[in-house]
Amino acid sequence: MPEGGASISKSTHNGTAGAGAGAAAPPGAAAAPPGRRTGGGASQAGLLVTFILGGLTAVTPLAMDMYLPALPEVTRSLSAPAATVQLTLTACLAGMALGQLVVGPMSDRYGRRRPLLVGLVTYVVATALCAFAPTVELLVACRLAQGLAGAAGIVIARAVARDLYDGVALARFFSTLMLISGMAPILAPLIGGQVLRFTDWRGVFVVLTILGVLLTALVWTKLPETLAPADRHGGNVREALAPMRRLLADRVFTGYMLAGGFAFASLFSYVAASPFVMQEIYGASPQTFSLLFGLNSIGLMIMGQVNGKILVGRVRLDKALGAGLAVVIAAATALLLMSLGVFGETGLVPVAVALFVLMSSMGVVMPNTQTLPLMRARHAAGSASALLGTTSFLIGAIASPLVGIAGEDTAVPMAVVQLASALVATACFLGMCRPWKTGTSTKGGGV
């Protein structure tokens, strides 16, 4: 397969195709550069390529969520406290954050395929090593390496999408990716729970290693290069990092980036704390926890499709994002009040309902906090994707240990982190992006 120009044909379409008569283009739907698609759907990129990109974005939930039902078992197996075991999540997140800062600019300079394949091979090796870690310290180190390597799939999948799409089509394509990658949070805990019926937590990493090998083979044989040599950035490291500096100087881009990062922290506080909250506090079995986790992921996936199929092209993306953040705040407030006992003693069902509402609203928040800033980065998709991913994972890595700071017997820290993160995300969105100013988000960043 040639490393050179893009082997997916790129034809230009109207930015509001399929949006409905009279529908106003959402913020960011400026005229697309020649050769970049602004309308249509996933079928234009080819279903196989779309599924591959979905698989790459699923690397994170697979690495995290298959492991979640085993967290209590890891604490017993390695004789480690819960807060230390949660550092295995933090290490993986931190690795993904830092890795994206390296891989993003590399993909702008060398193309998408080569950095992606190197990252995937390293990810497979690190995941295999996790299965044999004899101590929690070594497991944390292996998870850090796993995160560093897994960053390639996350950042390059977004960059490839930006290579192929713009405007309305980009928003719709991200919603399509959420539908595909959303299957990972549904299936991963279920698979992890079933694996634990036949083996211990180490077997989860063996399964992850096998899946990594299959994805690497698929990328090697089927994913074409989407960044032509003429569009790549040359020069030294300083010149490669210049687009990042320009993006960070863009107030609106930075506002969306921070809003997405803190929204992700609210989501990840649930990921880190829910195994202990559901199983240790409310007595759910690993299988019940897996089912509830999968149900929440279905809600997220459905709302992602509502965003892509109904809202995009009819409602300004800023308005959809603001509404999604408002629902997150409401759900997190309800969880905090229940955790504090304001409503008396609550069981598993009310808490599960509030978490379902919170997670479902992320199906609107997350695609738009990726689409809106990427629309401002026409010529540095890899660098922009790296900044978005790094910010989200670093903030998530900080939030992860905070949810266990009061031990395993209370859900208050989880609810506090979720609410505080959602409030900060909303403040960044309103204070820096200023969505009430018409045209603010339709101006290209010129990067």
What does this structure look like?
With 447 residues, this protein is an all-alpha fold. The chain contains 16 helices and no strands. It has helices at residues 47-57, 59-65, 71-77, 82-110, 113-130, 136-164, 167-181, 183-198, 201-222, 237-249, 251-281, 286-311, 317-339, 348-374, 381-402, 412-433. The relative contact order is 0.16.
Rounded to an integer, what's the Rg over CA atoms?
21 Å
Number of strands: 0
Largest sheet: none
Nearest-integer average pLDDT? 78
Low-confidence region ranges: 1-35, 37-44, 438-446
Q: What does this entry show, briefly?
A:
With 447 residues, this protein is an all-alpha fold. It is built from 16 helices and no strands. Mean pLDDT is 78; it is low at 1-35, 37-44 and 438-446.
Describe how the helices and strands are arranged.
Layout: H1 47-57, H2 59-65, H3 71-77, H4 82-110, H5 113-130, H6 136-164, H7 167-181, H8 183-198, H9 201-222, H10 237-249, H11 251-281, H12 286-311, H13 317-339, H14 348-374, H15 381-402, H16 412-433
Helix pairs in contact: 1-6, 1-7, 1-9, 2-8, 3-4, 4-5, 4-6, 4-15, 5-6, 5-9, 6-15, 7-12, 7-14, 8-12, 11-14, 11-15, 11-16, 12-14, 13-14, 13-16
Features:
447 residues; mainly alpha; 0% strand; globular; disordered N terminus; disordered C terminus
